[in-house]
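the three lines:
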Amino acid sequence: MCLAVPGKIIEIYEKQELKMAKMDFSGVTREACIEHVPEAKVGDYAIVHVGFAISLLSEEEAQESIDLLREIVEAGELDGEEPA
Amino acid sequence: MKYLSEYRDAELVHGLIAKIKDITTQHWTLMEICGGQTHSIIKNGLDQLLPEQIELVHGPGCPVCVTPLELIDKALAIASKPDVIFTSYGDMLRVPGSQADLFSVRAQGGDVRVVYSPLDAVKLAQENPDKEVVFFAIGFETTAPANVMSVLQAEQLGIDNFSILVSHVRVPQAIEAILCSPHNRVQGFLAAGHVCAVMGFWEYIPLAEKYGIPMTITGFEPLDIVQGILTTVEALESGTNQVNNAYIRAVTEKGNQSAQAVINKVFEECDRKWRGIGLIPGSGWRLRPEYSKYDAEKRFQVETIQAEESPLCISGLVLQGLIKPDQCEAFGTLCTPENPLGATMVSDEGACAAYYRYRVQEPDSRETGS
Amino acid sequence: MINKTPEMESPICPLPRKHTDKIVQGHGSGGKMMEDLIKDIFYPPLANEALLAGDDAGVVEITSGRRLAVSTDAHVVSPLFFPGGDIGKLSVCGTVNDVAMVGAKPLYLSASFILEEGLDICLLEKVVLSMKDAAEEAGVKIICGDTKVVAHGEADGLYISTTGVGELDPGLNISGNQAKPGDQVIVSGKLGDHGIAVLEARGDLGFETKLVSDIAPLNHLISAMLSVSDQIHVLRDPTRGGAASALNEIAKQSQVGIFLEEALIPVRPAVAAACEMLGFDPLYIANEGKLIAIVGQKDAPKVLEKMRQTKYGEDAVLIGQVEDSPPGRLLLKTGLGSTRIVDLLAGEMLPRIC
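prediction for all of em together
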């Protein structure tokens, strides 16, 4: 139910009284409505579903979760378990 | 691609799978709720890589699959009317109604158009003042903020030739219905990450407590999914039943409150019939009375359409995770994506379609493609 | 088979919906529905050896030792002009390529035009000039044609149908049924550019990229490849339905298993990103200037090298190999090491929300 992709906000403007953003999805640009992430600024990343930003992506938390996963994997390797 | 490629890292995925193997001491049955997660699991062959003791069953997380038959028939009735432009998300076009689907309506001359966003449907209404533009507003909670915004926009701009046909379903009630079933085998849930990005996960905490079942908010990329599985298995192995968030980059407990406010403004709770499961009380949303002028069912007087169904397929059992698509007798023979018997075969993210596309099981020689 | 029923209301579903009474969009999408339409409606009354071979061109012997390849294609693309090409260029290159895919040297084209009342004549002039340029590049002549006009609203502006004729060198046997276990699968460049560029140009889905269509005549590239190897078993241009459809067809025609490596499949980042957004798979997106070659193992490296030195083959890569089983199947080894089937699409590929 949830095909949503991360994109970068490259421009913010109003259109027909809705807060909109031009988003860059790794080389594809599309407009998205950012009414639901009013705190968004240019340069932020957001998850976009059917042309609407539903959540801002936290770079800090993204890095934190990758780091945590790396730790888990490395700890597993140190324990003598080989990755599959 | 930022926020995508990192979560497809093969080394990390395999490392986490090794960890899952390490801690698993018995058979566990987990259900992923979201059709997008099912698609990702089968497309990436994650279930092939997991230890055998971890069984993944696929939940009713595809709004296309669970849209009740009578609603499809209502959509077809409206789309067939002259001077109507019927707009929809792409995946709905193939879902069979009692007699036809939206493709056939188009073949008969109906103006049926795919839109990417509900705002595109509002734009069509502005550009075609002499037509009635109807938008098929299906979805789980993830899609609700977009769908309601189309109504608010129409209201804001004074657009009168726009209406929506609503078929919204909600996840927590579905989870409860599954857990209540005496045949339930599910021991842990991977909750839908993007539903929770909108709604938060506060609704799942009392459910986890009441039924003693751990739930992990899980994303969609391979790394997210194995992380969700690892977290859930850890909880199961340690006998705990809390709700964990394994999608912290996008989800918070409270969720997107601005989106929730807008949903509550336009929608109210209602009972909803789920195709293949039945009526689940309080599991849907409908337009509030003050927005009834945007309700396509009322506008086109199709409220009384009933659908006759005949029991031919068991997609409901698949939707409830009771069986796998390839255990159905009709799978791949009577029921294929071009000849769907049930909704799970029609939708690109329905479990049956995912299995058929990625893992066809021939009736006489069981290939798993592994 | 399960014999329990859930306590909840029994599962219910409708009667099957097979579109056998009216044509729907899916019948033209290059997937299973189109395959069935061809098998059920076209083949039975028209059957003959050349037709049933199922290749991009029909091959017939006209006098002893001389063979002709004939192919036809109708072009209904909308919009008529898009980044990287137009319907004119497409109508020439598409048919030139189909003739070339059986190893024939394309020589002559016919062109038939269905013009919609109200079409700008200066637009038609542009299309014809574009056809002239494409024909010159391909080295073919358009030697006859036809023109019809239909009422306003009946032809999306302009439809063009071209038929091409070429001559096959004796001894060449390049066909979809010639793939052999051990053969290597080569693709001449990045996949998906045309389909996404045209989708963007239509404007319905509202996205923008800097992509251009890859329309190109591939006959010179094929000549170059044939000059270094006689082990080129199959050539196919992955147009509607993409590489997945073309390779599925070949796997079925040759009754072999074809295995692709996901990590090797070349796709531009913008194509990949557009596919992510819409829920598409680049393997199913149309290409109009790419070819798939299935080449004997020993010759594959030198064919690849020759392609990379030739126009339109610069980005050629190896993407998989042919095995003897499972017969008729296309499979993909994912970046994670698992394997999955890559099937024919049922009908149209639709953007999804799930």
